[in-house]
Amino acid sequence: MSSVATSAGSRHEPLRDDAPLPFAAIDGLVPTKTILLTADPAAADPVAAKRAEILAYFHRTCELDDRLFDLIRNEAAFFVRHEPLRHPPIFYLAHPATFYVNKLYVARLFKTRIDPRMEAMMAVGVDEMSWDDLNAAHYDWPSVAAVRSYRREVRRRVDAFIRSMPLELPIRQDSPAWMILMGIEHERIHLETSSAILRQMPLADLRREEELSADERRLWRTCREQGPTPENPWVEVPARSVLLGKRDDDQTYGWDNEYGTEEVHLPSFSAARQLISNGEFLEFIAAGGYRDESFWTDEGRGWLRYTKAEHPRFWRHEGGAWKQRNLLDEIPLPLDWPVEVNGLEAQAWCAWKRQETGLNIQLPTEAHWQALRAGIDTDQPHWEKAPGNVNLEWFASSCPVTMFPQRSQGSQGPLGPQGTEGEFCDVIGNVWQWTRTPIMPFKGFEVHPLYDDFSVPTFDGRHNLIKGGAWISTGNEALASARYAFRRHFYQHAGFRPIIDAPGHDCVTEGSKLYETDVLVTQYLEFHYGPEALGVPNFPRACAEETLRLVPKDRRRRCLDIGCSVGRSAFELARAFDHVDAIDFSARFIQSGVRLQEGGELHYEVPIEGELTVARSVSLERLGLGDLRGKVAFMQGDACNLKSLYTGYDLVFAGNLVDRLYDPGMFLDLIAGRVLPGGLLVITSPYTWLEEYTPKAKWIGGRREHGEALTTFTGIGRALEADFELIHRSDVPLVIRETARKHQHSIADLTAWRRRGAG
């Protein structure tokens, strides 16, 4: 393959001519529809056909991402945080590639890593959560050339894996092919978020549209049509029931939060025929909307005071005229294009319009949007042509809000631009549409075990669903069942369509009331924070107390609690330490600790017998830990591949972790580099080895070696003997409650090891 012509230095090194990468030229990159999980009944060899389809989908996805970053002409721009709430572009160039490796390695589908340092540094993205890491001092970014080289190697490795992986149809969630689709759809999400970041870069750092090749211009073309502010009438929608959620028999890939169903009964409402245009939003600005805080929520007022915003992020006022920034150009403000705002600005506009009209004007709920969407009877990937400005099939920018009427229920006319049929415009596409629905799971929500941090961190009441997709929404994002959410102050390619709602009506999923009944989370909340059972002291507290007796008072500066679960041991260790880093692989566990740290009260249920449960609640104040919340920093991470910044500790505490790692030997080999000379490593474990967590070949004990019994204690000692000496060993009992009359009673082996060398 040869690279397309570009300006000097802007294109990555071409792939080797002999590399097995059979993807099409740029014309084959769009439309970029997702694929079906089922067999093609017309295929002579359905498995071979599906394998080829997955391979092409993978390469088109990688190529689209490459082509987007090829638009950056200035290498220095890769290392600037153009969006203050996100990493610099170099992270997003690398992150999708490391995702494939990290997930396939943890799933034991890859036997080796490619670049452990890259895969640790680029593992976790940013949603401005407490366990995100936006501290630039923590990153020694690799060069663009190094990341390009890494992406090429990942592409080769995944290509080879797709060609050889076992494949049965339909593809199910435990299939290797599901993991590949997870990586593909994840990269397509980042294609869109990266485009929003590029849109905030100085234009001088980007190639202009006239500099692109003909093929590239077809992909990244800006719409050239614009006109005056259009009328935007209210259209009545009769009362109806809508079914939310993605059924288990759906034939397309889905994220965990999409599964499950819930029926919602909607009273009649009215909706704006079009998305709110720039011209309509300009009236809000002229009326002093950004200066009058009465239109803003408490959250919105805080954002307004902090940012000093006076207009939407992608607007600029110069010489008495408004301009709009697109991906690769800046144009006079197109009055008939959709305004692009964050959720707080959309809420403020609705409040202003309520005052102006006396009508109950609101953002829609998820159910209201689905009621409008139900009128379009086909869904991607069954479209021959996208019915709106979506999927990169029309433009690489927004377009007039009247350009794409979309058929309502009962209409018979054609779909497409400038059509005559269609009650609403842009139900799908152009820009995402903010809703007032905080994302919550449907009843019966289950995470995928290899990506439990996709949705869980957003179940906090602070992330609102956006619906409908934008011009660059591809793959799973363009499905009717897609459920994506952002913090209300975040910017994406998003606008809104207001509704006139029945007073007092709202639609929040039933799952929001039930999330803390997640069996594993509630079991660990009870284990960490619940009452003592069977007369056995609280295990995390007992471990912390015994550990602290071993740590000299002058060696209590920094502590790492690795495998912190829901956080009790971290808070207990913070009684003595100046600072505790608390790390766990599971976002579900981390979230519980963070909510307590933020002053919240956690409510959960534990089983009594059968279907009977008892409610529990916990707060740090009631446990006497409230004053310690500022001393703990929760972070998601992989114990076997930690970021390099996690070093220089007086104590590393690994509670009941070693027999739950995918490679405990790797953890023990590397942990010495995290502990200061003279510092302590404390390990607790009941040594319950299970192949569910650790391949038997990786067990460091609990097996026979050369015919002789190898205990885990011996295996740990062997792994640590070069750098540590054993200074303490004791038994610590623990009890995990299953029901009121059934408990697991175990004995953990607590071993304390001092790092050799002067303290």
Q: Strand order of the main beta sheet, please?
A: 20-17-16-21-22-26-25
How far apart are the first and last residues' alpha carbons, in Å? 57 Å
Helix-and-strand structural type: alpha+beta
Tell me the Rg in angstroms. 27 Å
Output the number of helix runs.
16
Coarse shape:
globular
Beta strand %: 15-25%
The residue ranges in which pLDDT falls below 50 over 5 or more consecutive positions are: 1-26, 409-421, 510-515
User: What's the CATH topology name of the largest domain?
Assistant: paralog of FGE (formylglycine-generating enzyme)
Average pLDDT over all residues: 89
Q: According to CATH, what is the class of the largest domain?
A: Alpha Beta
CATH architecture title of the largest domain: Alpha-Beta Complex
Instruction: Give a short account of the largest sheet.
Output: 7 strands, mixed
Total strand segments: 26
The CATH superfamily of the largest domain is paralog of FGE (formylglycine-generating enzyme)
